[in-house]
């Protein structure tokens, strides 16, 4: 039976209501015992439970219960598999029920603006479409068990430097298209129970006090129904927050702010109805959990195996010149302490006290592989063990191949600070370079949360990116190296050749007070592909032990309009000799040239399993929104009428099937009419184009200057005249004697009447 929350609120005192708007301690909300409202507990994190008891913290410093560490978002998003991440959410939701946790704090969909962000391992992608789709799948998986999620960090929290105070200076178009879009998708497709607002300011206003961010956009436009909670310690002024739409402040020690809200209500500064709405939203979420408890057992051993299977779908084969998979009958040498002690998760609030950690070395030996080991360098510092290097150089040629386990130490990559560069530790690069002098069959296995520079990339035959693959990463690595599993991950972020290629390079991380997003909408592949800049590995890139062919793109109609859906089909064939999975990616490109846009944007993807020689058809649906950009002057999404290219492939730089479609819209952009309006603007608008063209022909006699043709070729002269007039403001017609001021006033009025 549904509870009458409004009646319950009516029985509360003002102080009791306000108390529910702040936490009781680090992880619990406050109780009102006389009304039967208990404390509710929430917990980090996106890829496993970090449930703490007495010594609580938000940076992963103190211990938490033993739990299963699943692959981090940098890995799971590389799976491009909605069903997989939904399944992971399903498992985590069951674990929450078993551990009496009402909300798990994730997923994190902050856009990977720069590879240097220290928390990129916890974030999904540089692409908002991919991040939104994967986040929605995860949320639906968790929330099917009536466990809340907290999608974060809302919004424009794309760096750790000065994250608690910096103001992200960003255009509304970039916010809508890049930094809010994943949140929008998740809200519309999954309704996360909570949204966690970020520490930072956006254009000078703290997220926790931003009515546009907290109320107008999510509740007014997206139909958001849950409550908004702060990041831990993100409140600057709770009264302003409540007025803006903030519901819950975390963590505890909020009594002063509770009283401040109550005093503001009594003073008439905050309507009590505002407080009632906050309380209602909060209780609705917690009562849904309370009234739908499940009998679940946290089977850590079972979930550990699930974590390993998930990572097998996430690993990205970056390069392979035929060295992988390696033959189990031959002899190999593992080098690097990551082979023995894997780096499988990031530092900070998502850090999990793992149930069981598998290393590649122990898993390979347990499987009977013929593997020796030399440490070479430690996992936690940039230090080359010279004696091991000498030993390695002396014996490397005796092995059929050497597998180097390289990566970034925890100290380099963590919540709380950003990386200084994209380099691997110098000791690792030196070891690989020296090794290649005596052994050409070298495969590098990487463990890191974001792109790194690869100075030896041209000489190494194979590179396998495991990212931060969770506690089962050792199993997954062994099974992929030896061919028991065919890798199928694809990059959810671009790997630039060098850091200075990144579009945010000159504006990251700002000056502690402000960071200017001058690259605007050109983030990640949107920048590299538009600029035609070479990259190390493109967005969407990922190899396999088999081969695929993506072809025969076709549409169910030649044109469509605002309210219609376009169906796009493409064939994918396994052209190799073993089973595998391919990620088919669909991009859209606006060919109309009406506004500056990326050369293409991801609007569909699907992961398909195929047997050798098998062909399957993948179907995508494209609507008007998929073609649209955010038009600030319209205050809405807008797709201009005209031609759009449809591009299918297995990476943003590897398109193998193309098509096109015509789109017709009834929407019109506002046309601002004054003496500075250009002839080009009027000619581009269908409401005024014919009128202006007729007027120019009649008033100018086909010649702008009255001196006759320039080239002697009428067609060429007309083209030149049109080009010259493109940026000519209407007031120039007065300067050139075409009309006087009174006639100009009449012209403007006629144009306004035409536009309506």
TrEMBL record:
GO molecular function terms attached to this record: beta-glucosidase activity
Domain Fibronectin type III-like: 582-652
Listed GO biological process terms: carbohydrate metabolic process
Alphabetical list of SUPFAM superfamilies matching this protein: (Trans)glycosidases (SSF51445), Beta-D-glucan exohydrolase, C-terminal domain (SSF52279)
Keywords of this entry: Glycosidase, Hydrolase
InterPro entries, per database record: Cellulose_deg_GH3 (IPR050288), Fn3-like (IPR026891), GH (IPR017853), Glyco_hydro_3_C (IPR002772), Glyco_hydro_3_C_sf (IPR036881), Glyco_hydro_3_N (IPR001764), Glyco_hydro_3_N_sf (IPR036962), Ig-like_fold (IPR013783)
Record-stated family: Belongs to the glycosyl hydrolase 3 family.
Protein name in UniProt: Beta-glucosidase-related glycosidases
Organism: uncultured bacterium Contig16
